[in-house]
Amino acid sequence: TSDEILLSIEGLTVSYGAVEAVRGIDLTVKRGEIVTLLGANGAGKSSTLNALVGLAPRKARRMLFDGTDLLALPPETIVRRGMTLVPEGRRVFSSLTVDENLMLGGAKHAARGNPAAVKTNMLELFPILAERLHQKAGSLSGGEQQMLAIARALMSSPDLLLLDEPSLGLAPQVVDRIFDLIGNLRDRGLTILLVEQNVVQSLEIADRGYVLANGRVELQGSAADLRASPEIQDAYLGA
Ligand code: ATP
């Protein structure tokens, strides 16, 4: 972790017609950190991530990523600047092969690196995908599809990876593998903003966290402080 602020959001709101999903949140992510965004269903976590990459209707006083004003950029440009979202529900292209899925992740963003070189790197990080390279993505297990969704996002060589509930619906052992992977990615220098329902494991791996409730930040702090806080203990850790 450095002190360099990579992402800085002030007064973010997301509204879908009359529904205010996010109501004026401030959020920062420093380079090298894992920051986790926690909260109940409907708290506004996915809307926040989607808003960051321009995929949800957003307003903000300020939205800066690596010195760039995000409010001025369309989604495809945001990816090229180095921020990529892995959306909830691991949306891989089932009828395409693993290899084709990966190349789609790299194709649009060739500006950020040589896709072939990035892919070689990726297959080292995900040996299971190397073994399944010419298999249809739809034939992979849920955990493998999540790996593929993450690998595809990494093909754009992001500086900041946004992960929306990567462990959702996966068996406990597979969840452990996903969290190990997230730790490996951080060790390789990636900065990560992680939305999770899995509060215990998220606070183990994260540096800091925010807890959203009804579209507002209810609690924030270091992961250690959050783990120890009575609010988290009561609401999520079953103390
Ligand atoms: P979950 O874990 O259930 O996805 P979340 O914390 O990620 O919860 P959001 O998905 O951001 O929460 O949803 C926040 C609120 O906005 C909810 O009330 C949801 O119904 C609403 N919402 C989300 N997306 C849309 C949309 N496209 N149109 C209308 N309302 C939406």
UniProtKB/TrEMBL annotation:
Domain annotation ABC transporter: ranges: 7-239
GO molecular function, one term: branched-chain amino acid transmembrane transporter activity
GO biological process: L-amino acid transport
Domain of life: Bacteria
Pfam family, one: ABC_tran
SMART domains to which the protein is assigned, alphabetical: AAA
Gene3D superfamilies (alphabetical): P-loop containing nucleotide triphosphate hydrolases (3.40.50.300)
Keyword Nucleotidyltransferase among UniProt keywords: no
Keywords, alphabetical: Amino-acid transport, ATP-binding, Nucleotide-binding, Transport
Family matches, as InterPro entries: AAA+_ATPase (IPR003593), ABC_transporter-like_ATP-bd (IPR003439), ABC_transporter-like_CS (IPR017871), BCAA_Transport_ATP-bd_LivF (IPR052156), P-loop_NTPase (IPR027417)
Family to which this protein belongs: Belongs to the ABC transporter superfamily.
PANTHER family listed in its UniProt record: HIGH-AFFINITY BRANCHED-CHAIN AMINO ACID TRANSPORT ATP-BINDING PROTEIN LIVF (PTHR43820:SF4)
Record protein name field: Branched-chain amino acid transport system ATP-binding protein
Organism: Ruegeria intermedia
